[in-house]
Amino acid sequence: MSVIDIGGTVRSGEELDIAAVEQWLSAQGLDLQGNARVTQYSGGASNWTYRIEYDNQDLILRRPPAGTKAKSAHDMVREYTVQKALKPAYPLVPDMVALCTDESVLGCDFYVMQRVAGIIPRANLPKEINFGKTEVRQLCINVLDALIDLHQVDYHGTALETLGKGEGYCQRQIEGWDKRYEKARTINVPSFKLVRRWLKSNLPADSKTCVIHNDWRFDNVILDPQEPMRVIGVLDWEMATLGDPLMDLGSALAYWVQPDDNMILRAMRRQPTHLPGMFSRKEVVQYYLDKTGMHTSNWTFYEVFGMFRLAVIAQQIYYRYYHKQTRNPAFKNFWLIVHALHVRCLKLMAQQTVSNVISHSGLLSKLNSQRKGQ
User: Fold this and answer.
1) Domain(s) of CATH 3.90.1200.10: residues in the chain
2) What is the mean pLDDT of the chain?
3) Is the overall model pTM greater than 0.85, yes or no?
4) What does the pLDDT read at residue 68?
5) Which of 106, 113, 149, 297 has the most CB atoms within 10 Å of its CB?
6) Which of the following CATH numbers is that of domain 18-114: 3.30.750.200, 3.30.110.70, 3.30.200.20, 2.160.10.10?
C-alpha cells in the first residue's frame, strides 16, 4: 500500500557506510541476500534513522547525529536495552536484532531492529486515509490507550527495575532540563528565568512511578495499514525510564497542536491533532485521568513542564545548527519555536495565577457568608 511509511533519499552529509554496516551485520550471524537498498527517514529531528532492505531482510538502523550532543538524549545502548527488556511485557516494541558499541564501524554506537511495516501518522495523515470525525476520535483514543497500557506495565522483578532512580523524578527532571537549557542557550532565545523559577516553586511530589516513554507522539507510533486506527508499534525509546506518568503525559501534550493555537505553534505541528474529531488538550487530560483513576490539583505544572522541556529539545537541536554542526535546513528557524513555547508557558502560568486568585476569592466569600449567617 502506498500509505505505508517508507524512507527517502539519504540527506547530504548523513550518508551511511553500508559496507562497514554490512560486514558487522554478517558478523552478528545475519544471512543477507542481495544488494542493500539504503534509504533514510526524514521524520526525526534528532537521531538518524535508516532503512536497510535486502531480498530477505528488512531492517532499521538507528544512530545519533554527528556533532556535539547530549549523551542522555542520544543513548543508543539505552534505547536498545530498554526495548529488549520491555518487549515481553509490551508487544508494541519492535524486535531488536543487534547492538554495536564498536566505534570503529560507524564512529558511534548504533543498533539494528526489524522494521515494522505500517503507517506513521506525521503532520498529516496520508491522503488515502479519508477519516471522518468518528474514525479520528477512535485513532486518538487508541493512541492514548497505548500510552496508558505502557504506564500499567509491571516492571517489578524485571530488568526494567534498573531504568530509573525511583523517588524524586519530578525534581530531577526540573533540575536536569534547567541545566540543559543553560548549556544550549544562544543569544537569540529567551532566558526562561520566570518559567524555570515557577516550575521549581510549584514542584509536586511524584504521583507514582511506572515505565514511561518520555517522547510520546503520533509520529512515534505505527498504525496497521489494513486497519489504520489500530496501533501496531511504538518507536523511539531512548529516553524511556521509570518516572511519573503525569510528566509523560505533560510532555506528550507539548506536541499537541490545536486549531486555535497561534500561528507559530500551528506551523510547528508534526502530528494530526488538528483534525476534526481529535481530542483537545483538556479532553486528553480528562480521558487519561478518568481511565487511570488518577487525579491532580496541579495539572498546569505538568503542562508548563512539557512546554519548557520541548523548548529545551528544540534549542538543543538549534544549537547544533547555530554552531554549524548540522546543515539540515529544517532546523534554521527552531529559535522561533523556542520563543513561541516561552510565550505559551507564560500564558499558562498567568491563567493558573488568575484561577488561584478567583478560587481564593470564592473561598473567602464563602467563609464570610458563613460568618454572617452565624
Assistant:
1) 133-362
2) 91
3) yes
4) 46
5) 113
6) 3.30.200.20
Q: At 169, list the grid cell.
A: 523524578
Q: Is residue 230 exposed (0-12), middle (13-18) or buried (19+ Cβ within 10 Å)?
A: middle
* Residues constituting the chain: 374
Whether the predicted pLDDT of 96 surpasses 60: yes
Residue 179: phi and psi, rounded to 5, are: -65, -40
pLDDT of residue 1: 47
Location of each CATH 3.30.200.20 domain in the chain: 18-114
pLDDT band of residue 326 (cuts 50, 70, 90) is confident
The grid cell for 52 is 536497510
May I ask the CATH architecture of the domain 133-362? Answer: Alpha-Beta Complex (3.90)
d(CA 99, CA 289): 37
Strand pairing report for 96-100 and 221-223: unpaired
pLDDT at 374: 56
For the CA atoms of 245, 229, 267, 194, the dihedral, rounded to the nearest 10 degrees, stands at -10
The beta-carbon contacts of 23-30 under 8 Å, at least 24 apart in sequence, are 24/100, 24/102, 24/105, 25/59, 25/98, 25/112, 28/97, 28/98, 30/57, 30/97, 30/98
pLDDT tens-digit readout, 106-150: 999 999 999 999 999 999 999 899 999 999 999 999 999 999 999
- Distance between CA 217 and CA 184 in Å, rounded? 23
C-alpha cell at 270: 508534526
| pLDDT for res 47 | 84
